[in-house]
Amino acid sequence: MTHEPSAISSSDHLPWAPVRPGFDLKVLHGRADEETRALLLRLAPGTVIDRHRHEGEVHALNLSGQRKLLETGEIVGPGGYVYEPPGNVDSWMAVGDEPLIVFVTVRGAIESLDDDGNVTRRSTTAEIAAAYQRHVETIRGAAARSRS
What is d(CA 38, CA 60) in angstroms, rounded to the nearest whole number? Predict the structure, then answer.
């Protein structure tokens, strides 16, 4: 078995990619041929992550700000860790006065659910990584055009 060398880098140079108003992300790790991704999520206060189901496990660490788990009412603040097992269904909201930043590792697809539990959208590591790469390339292209 071969192992990839460790990769250590700062995320400061990575751009935030808008997902929708109030919700941005950075892909720290994730490739089309992998199931697991590592992300930074940034949500403005009041932004809701609608009900969804995780195909695989999720590990989430709040770096700053607070979020409310809508199913239980629990508040997760800075340093708070949440584990979500495969099949978990949840929704949450950024609360408080400052943006919420969460580091997450997600394995497998995420399925958005309607009120009846029907899947309305499915996203995978490959799709998220490709969309983020397109965003980065767009920013690089704009920067190169402005320098010429």
Answer: 10
pTM summary value: 0.88
Tell which CATH classification among 3.30.450.20, 3.40.50.2300, 1.10.10.10, 2.60.120.10 matches the domain 17-147. Answer: 2.60.120.10
Query: What is the DSSP annotation of 29-94?
Result: E--TT-SEEEEEEEE-TT-EEEEEEESS-EEEEEEESEEEETTT--EE-TT-EEEE-TT-EEEEEE
Q: Per residue in 15-62, pLDDT tens?
A: 999 999 999 999 999 877 788 999 999 999 999 999 999 999 999 999
- Cα(68)–Cα(46) distance, integer angstroms: 10
